[in-house]
Design a protein that fits this description.
With 302 residues, this protein is α/β, with parallel strands linked by helices. The protein has helices at 56-67, 76-92, 132-137, 156-162, 175-187, 244-265; strands at 13-21, 27-29, 101-105, 114-117, 124-127, 148-152, 198-202, 207-209, 217-219, 224-228, 237-239, 287-292.
């Protein structure tokens, strides 16, 4: 199987997968080449047509378990059907119901292979848009509201926003930053078709543990991450006081807090206490930050 870490199957470990936006407005896995020393795609599982592009080890294991010899002796359609059946048994314990998510067919660039996700539904998907055109076509409504999504934080976002008096997305802005802000405004409405939160993957900020409680751990192929709620002053894990991601969230509040508040108050999906915002709606209430486990600050004060 494509799981490089046996522990990910346990409840305390979850996978992180990196995807990009496709021209049709959906998302597909980042390209992967195992010849490169540092592949672009750091996903815990890598997937394409039943994991055939995952990694050499995954392919060999799947061939041995499900086919017994090289898959080239089979028709591609038959291979896909058998792989999907095997993956459903693998992740669903033989029970009915797909554990493999169908993500359409990738027909751009002359590729017609079905793209399938072979990962637990409890895992997280980090979106990395590479082109402005795909960002314009991307629709938040195509998301699954029971799935965790993330964007990867870049410290350069702080300087992009620092000198602005009003935020306007432009072609010169970072596509991922524009996507993040688009998501903030979307989930502020509390639309039930959208996830209630977006996660920010932060490889730079330090954090400190203030209680012995062990949070769930997310893994990609390089690092382990834990989740921190930046809006909770009593959280068992907290970001360092001068963490770059907190400076970014402060800049978003400076530019967009009034807009986020308006999106919430004017939304017909929000009602009752969710519309009572005496201090406005901070972006900190809409995000969770994923920090590297090895960035824990043990001796330094917060």
């Amino acid at each position: 199987m494509a799981n490089c870490y046996p522990e990910i199957g346990q409840k305390t470990f979850k996978g992180i997968h990196y995807v990009t936006l496709s021209p049709g407005g959906g998302w597909t896995p980042l390209e992967f080449s195992w010849e490169k020393p540092h592949p672009t795609n750091r996903s815990a599982y890598l997937w394409h047509a039943g994991l055939w592009m995952a990694c050499k080890e995954s392919r060999k294991v799947m061939q041995k378990c499900w086919f017994g010899h090289l898959c080239c002796e089979y028709d591609q359609k038959e291979v896909d059907e058998q792989v999907n059946t095997g993956l459903r048994k693998l992740f669903y314990g033989g029970r009915k119901g797909p554990r493999v998510i169908w993500n359409g067919r990738r027909e751009d660039e002359g590729l017609f292979s079905p793209w399938l996700m072979a990962a637990s539904l409890d895992d997280m998907f980090c979106i990395n848009p590479s082109r402005w055109s795909t960002l314009e076509e991307f629709k938040l409504a195509c998301w699954r509201n029971n799935t965790d999504y993330a964007v990867e934080f870049d410290p350069s976002w702080i300087s992009e926003l620092l000198g602005l008096e009003k935020y306007r997305p432009t072609h010169s802005s970072s596509p991922t930053l524009n996507l993040a802000i688009k998501i903030f405004c979307g989930i502020a409405t509390m639309n039930p078709r959208l996830p209630p939160l977006i996660h920010i993957m932060d490889r730079y900020s330090g954090w400190k543990k203030v209680s012995p409680e062990s949070p769930p751990v997310f893994r990609d192929c390089e690092h382990e991450y834990i989740l921190i709620n930046p809006s909770d002053p009593l959280a068992s894990n907290r970001l360092a006081r001068h963490a770059p991601v907190l400076r970014f969230l402060d800049q978003v509040d400076r530019l967009l807090k009034s807009r986020l508040t308006h999106e919430r108050k004017s939304s017909h999906f929000a009602f009752g206490a969710s519309k009572v915002l005496p201090e406005g709606l901070s972006v900190r209430n809409l995000v969770r930050v994923m920090v590297r486990r090895d960035k824990e600050m043990v001796l330094e004060a917060m």
